[in-house]
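Note to self: keep these together.
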Amino acid sequence: MTAYFLAALLLAGPPQDTLPIPDGYRSALEAGTRSRTGEPGPRYWQQRVDYRIRTRLYPAEAAVEGSESITYHNNSPDTLGAIFLNLAQNVFAPGNPRNRSVPITGGFVLEEVRVQGALVDPGGQPGTLPTVVAVPLAMPLPPGGTAELEIGWRFTVPEGTFRMGREGRDVFYLAQWYPQVAVYDDLRGWARDPYLGDGEFYLEYGDFDVEITAPGGWLVSASGVLQNPEAVFTPEAAARFRSLSRDEVTRVVSRADRAAGRATADAGADDLLTWHYRAENVRDFAWGASDRYVWDATVAEYPADEGGTRSAAIHTLYRPDRPNWDRSAGFARHAIEAHSTWYPYPYPQMTVNEGVIGGGMEYPMITIIGGGSRAESLYGTVSHELAHMWWPMVVGSDERRHAWMDEGLASFSEDLFTPTIFPESPGGIGSLRGYLRIAGSDGETESMRPADLYGPFGNRGTASYGKPATVMRALRAILGEDTFDRAMRTYIRRWAFAHPNPLDLFWTFEDVSGQDLDWFFYPWLYTTRVMDQAVLDVRSNEEGALVVLEDRGEIPMPVLVEYVTASGTRGRARFGHEVWRDGRAEVQITAPGGVVRVVLDPDEMLPDVNRADNAWGEGG
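Structure:
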């Protein structure tokens, strides 16, 4: 990118705090848990939940059963009389509200729920509970206290759905597969929004210790680190698993191994193997299993904050007939290394599973991606899903309330880095043009809307993916790469493993840049206003030319100009958004000898809905 886009010409000054501030956020400011700089306040707190889970997959029955022990840490200043559970699998139960079509499987059957050792009735009959339930506490839980919960459960795995499920009886991906404790935060207490299908997740951080039992010959991958490779792999595969290198892709379990029946260790008389995984400081846990997968692995390396390098193992599991999946480990390695530009990938491994759904769906340290893609398309999906390891896996925003905070930032980062491996990729131009197709139409809704309220005609994909990606790309052009990147890195470090609100993002960018950016964030994310700059006239004068502009849209934006002089010399100039007065602006181009051509925003960094009126004069 040219130096033209690197220097910000916006007026510097302290943040004005004119964005809408919800009541809960105002209370948090008063309580000292949030701050007007975008940093966590001095009294910020959040809860913690640790899980120990034992589960078994029954492929022939398409069923999963399990039991879990939960330790809930009340770090809040409040005394709690109940604990709320997320039962997201109940989106597949009859009678529950939803905004996506799903197969009806019955959802969770809760075999038993105990709190502090006492049996508790969560209410309802099997298959009739909602997706969020309250579990009462016999004794209120004081600040600093812990509660122990024990839950037994089972469910039928739905045929391939939008975030988890199965393909037939030989490929499974398990998410929303265990009862989870809901978030209790400083902004609104318990997060009790139901899971309807569109809106994704908001979860507490903690440690997971999970044992997964599956038939012999089935490869099982999961969030976290495999603790017992010698118990589940053949000796040869276990040795390969433990000796990975960035310099190559290791076939931990190859097509030949699969064909010869050597995909796993001998399962013994009961034909069962138990895979033991541990994951630390994560907000969720997912896993996949198949008796058709092969297993590739490599290593990603990237700079550490403290100097030197960090590394993470990369694992990809796929059916060997899927095109381009033999490149998937290299794609995942590249994506982890690229996105670590923002913040070093903090986890010890990353796994990509193939199958089950169209597109992809992310969970801590693991994602599922539909197979059978062109190489660039597969890389793009891998990159997008792995960008989610930063947003929302590290930066734990509320996806159900603010989908754009993770989908938009992941799309922005995907767009930024895809051309570094596929130079012919349009990068951010693709997201820009996708947004422009519906910008200002009845099909557009504002990004700052809960995901479940985008509506059937609200174009959720644009509001939460393409438009915010385009907006962040434009902001990077306006602030300059150095300032923008410093602000993004600061935001991630401030809110790593915590729960930011959009204001924390906005105010961090204002704090780092030293500029009031409400004029930018409000119209672009809270409204469906559009930008449309036009060149009305170019008047020659002694200094060069006076360019007369009209704002035919509703968002005054900086003016980025490329001009050509009479001698054929090209130059660039930029002017801050404050040049606009009542929809008009006059900007002076210093170019001795006059100007023969003017083009606004020649690199398409800004989302102008009509570029036909962006040029004046002849030539290219």
